[in-house]
Amino acid sequence: MKCKTFKDRTLLVVTGPTAVGKTEYTLGLAERLHTVIISADSRQMFREMSIGTARPTPQELARVPHYFVGTLSIHDYYNVSMFEHQVLELLETLFLSHPVVVMTGGSPQYIDAVCKGIDELPDPDPDTRAYVHNLYEHNGIEALRAQLQLLDPEYAAVVNPNDHKRMCRALEVSLQMGKPYSSFMQARPKERNFNIEKYYLNRPREVLFDRIARRVDQMMEQGLLEEARSLYPYRDLNALNTVGYKELFDYFDGKCSLEQAVEDIKTHTRRYAKRQLTWFKREFQEWRLET
Predict the structure, then answer these.
(1) Can you tell me whether residue 72 is helix, strand or coil?
(2) Could you give the CA distance from residue 249 to residue 255 in angstroms, rounded to a whole number?
(3) Proportion of the chain in helix, strand, coil states, percent, rounded to 5
(4) Contacts for 246-251: CB closer than 8 Å, 24+ residues apart
(5) What is the pLDDT of residues 103-141, one digit of tens each?
(6) Three-class HEC string of 29-54
(7) Which residues of 49-79 are buried (b: 16+ CB within 10 A; e: fewer)?
(8) pTM, whole model, 2 decimals?
(9) What are the CA-CA distances from residue 171 to residues 84, 124, 167, 247 (Å)?
(10) Are 117 and 84 in contact (CB under 8 A)?
(11) Residue 175: how many CB atoms within 10 A of its CB?
């Protein structure tokens, strides 16, 4: 069977916090290895979200073949389980001609799904789902976050603090199963028929934060405001529960000035980068970029 031949094949995972420089680094790496790139970024998949997700440019995409970039619409249904199955199926083909395949992106759940697999979780019973839904509807996302921190502090530390759907799902599972949602994510990893090497890029904190600030300013110059305005009618879609868009939606709603919205994007992006680093440090080897 083909799976026996893949023990000499390697999935090289190169991740890192937002704005650390994953795109340029992995482009050079893939070119040197004469291979392709699989994106594990849960937002760069959506074709309507180009500027705000720092999606590779057409010129960058032309340098190395990419997969899972701009392949979905914000209106499409998609989940991490679908990503796991599609990537594994793709690797069956890619490993026939590439000894090494690079996977890059900053979405922890998507990376874990490919490297470890995800458990099939039960559908929540109606009472549990109704309880969690009512908690969110009547008390807001802060109530979800507070209860999740009590029931599953590990997952609460890494989930997007604005993603109420993922928080609701985690609470449903934790309440119904009587143990943290994250414990299911850390069950015995599924055996893969290929090697996996995992690294994360990092920079000195002050350098990383400066890069974040400069990238947000660059996004605004490239037209992020107009992109967000075009997506504003669909703001309730899960895909748009994303730093960079939500803050500008608040500006459109008159909740803050444009200057404050931009500053909030920078602040929230720094916080997200910190959460990413907390996750990476658990089991990834660091590749330090000093400048």
Answers:
(1) strand
(2) 9
(3) 55, 10, 35
(4) 246/162, 248/224
(5) 999 998 899 999 998 776 767 677 788 889 889 999 999
(6) HHHHHCCCEEECCCCCCECCCCCCCC
(7) bbbbbbbbeeeeeeebebbbbbebebeeebe
(8) 0.80
(9) 23, 10, 6, 25
(10) yes
(11) 18
* CB contact at 8 A, 276 and 222: no
Residue 36 · residue 29 · CB < 8 Å: no
The tens digit of pLDDT for each residue in 49-104 reads: 999 999 999 999 999 999 999 999 999 988 888 899 999 999 999 999 999 999 99
| Residue for token pair 């994510």 | 185
| C-alpha–C-alpha distance, residues 232 and 179, integer Å | 37
d(CA 88, CA 102): 13
The tokens describing 275, both together, are 């959460």
Residue 73, both tokens? 């619409």
Q: Are 163 and 243 in contact (CB under 8 A)?
A: no
Strand blocks (E) in 120-275: 195-202
Taking CB atoms within 8 Å and a gap of at least 24, the contacts of 109-113 are 109/42, 109/80, 109/185, 110/40, 110/41, 110/42, 110/80, 110/83, 111/13, 111/15, 111/40, 112/185, 113/80, 113/81, 113/83, 113/84, 113/87
Residue 121 token pair: 């979780």
pLDDT in tens, 154-184: 999 888 888 888 899 999 988 888 888 888 7
